[in-house]
Amino acid sequence: MSSKKKKQQPKAFKDRQNSGRTTRAVQVxxxxxxxxxxxxSVVGVVALGLIGxxxxxxxxxxxxxxxxxxxxxxxGSYQEVQTAISDGEVTEEDLDSPWVVxxxxxxxxxxxxxxxxxxxxxPPAGGNHLSQWQTCTGIVYxxxxxxxxxxxxxxxxxxxxxxxPEALSEDEIASLSDKIEGRDYSFMSPYPGQSSAVSLxxxxxxxxxxxxxxxxxxxxxxxxxxxxxxxxxxxATCSGGVSTTTADTAPTGG
Length: 254
Description:
By secondary structure, the chain is of the alpha/beta class.
């Protein structure tokens, strides 16, 4: 018996058959990069936290500490007062404390006779003053300074910390000195006979306390130093002024 041979298909026909088949790709499931996801999530949270903290600092610095006296009322700041005057809403004479916008150099007047400026407020927190400022680069003076020079420093955006030497111990004075020494746009000096143990002045504002450890002292320094809302003279320096005190040769205007 003869066996029938299986008829073989031509190669071209097989190729056509194979070409019609769809080859299904095998997908390999990749694990999620949890490490990178967690890392970016943490970075995002930290970034948002920093932005929020920065916004809070900016907002908080604009809020005056409780208990300070503002001489701009009924306005909120030096800038608001100047805007009101420019808009004709009020005149300098109408202000409760017109000296907040008085910024003349008394010793520059042709008829100046050498008399130092006097102030309604003691220690003063603004007003006409001498043409030279008291150096206010974080200096602690060991004797009183001339009011007219100190007020010029306030115009530059500095804070002047004064104290009654009869009301504080040496340790308390040293503790206050630590807050000022080396801090630009601040200076400190004794002011015998002032109405409180400690007084802080910036242009148009003041804070007084009998407690040298009062936390508001630091708050006031942070609030008032170079506060743009109350900056009576923009881009003014604290270096290069006079560094004399009333214990030295009497300070002059220039």
